[in-house]
Amino acid sequence: MPDFSIILNGFADAFTLVNLVFVALGVAAGQMVGAIPGIGPIMAMAIAIPFTYALDPLVAISFLVGINKGGLFGGAIPAVLINTPGTPDAAATALDGYPLARSGKPVKATRMALYASVTGDTASDLVLITLAAPLAGLALKMGPVEILALMVFAFSIISGLIGDSLVKGLIAAFAGLLLSTVGLDPEQGTPRFYFGFFELYDGASLVAVTVGMLAVAEIFRRIAAARRTGPQPTITLDGDPKDQRVSLAEYWSCRAAMARGAFVGTVLGAIPGIGSTAAAYMSYAAAKRGPKGDGPEFGQGNLRGIAATESANSAVMGANLIPLLGIGIPGSIGAALLISAFKIHGIQPGPLLFQTQGRLIYGLFGAMLMANLMNLIIGQVSLRLWTRVIRAPESVIFPSALIFCFVGVYLSTGGLFGVGLMLLSAVVGYGMTALGYPVIVFIIAFFLGEGFERSLGQSLVILDGNPLALAQHPIALVLLGVAVVTTIWLGRKA
Q: Which of 120, 77, 41, 122 is nearest to 338 (CA)?
């Protein structure tokens, strides 16, 4: 646990004027892109990462966190107003949000989504602040053998839960590990797989690969789909003032659904690979099985249905950072993108962060709490503006986003080689998605590859090539056993 003065200084850094401005900008940008179906905060984060290079590390990461948090609520706006979720995890919100909007209460539905989102997100952040440091301390007591076993266990979960096929998930993980070997050998110092390109001596750029596979590949896919120029809202926000607000009594009546949603989202978010969409639907199903209460049936405009889904999918965001900050393993696309931001600022994510960058981490915690407040305020005052954003045509949005990708990667990598690597990664990502191979597993494995190789080499030395020596490492044996069981179970399930 860091010294108390470090914690106070970290929170003081978070509440500076510059950080406050960038958090607010991030939240506003997140809500805007979340309100546009097909864009979402993940693509926005991927595009924004290269442009944060010139910022202070805390300001840069706080800005990205603001985008992610704002997008969690932003995705609910089109789900409620036009029955078209702005993000996948908002699909469950449309089940009750759109019927409530059709009944003449669109503002009530969107505000309930906002309040539930902020509630679940704040609860999850408090759990993160409480558990991350102790978990990091536990991780520091592990040796190379235990860390290697932990990575194998994480790969087994992520490969099985992300995507439709365990085999394809494992193939994607292997490909990511293979790409991580490009560059200088950590032990011998000899170049590997650089194919005559000296730009690859330090390995493939994480920013170029991430932006290419997540943002550019998605832009290509969306352009190729040639969808409509943009949905046109059919529901206006004008009406009876009583139907444009959520009273304290109505909010309080949803307390059980929000508490259950926050719990489900936090638990599932802390497990790498499950994601916010599953959390939203599980929370909705649990609320539906709960006490009936007053108001319409579920699926016909029940406020508790909106509260259950939004509190759950938003709670996942903070919980996703528990394995990232505690043990250095990202559990979601958003967490993997934050790794890129850490690395371009020369910071290595993992349990050592609390010792080497304790002030930065607690500054990040303060920024997360600030972002929740900004989410509430900006969501309240800009609701009508985001309804206009929904009408933005894709023919304008995606080419503009593509230009930002080119410029951002060029600036962050220092030349056209990074842009070429980005385009190559985009083609690979497009093909992987088309064939059903999970891109996020590839990216997580690519990031963890260096640490995996290091732990593997150290473990082979410690065990002296004798598998029976694992008996002296009971924690590693348990983790490997659970990994085998998980792989078999998920393989049969698939």
A: 41
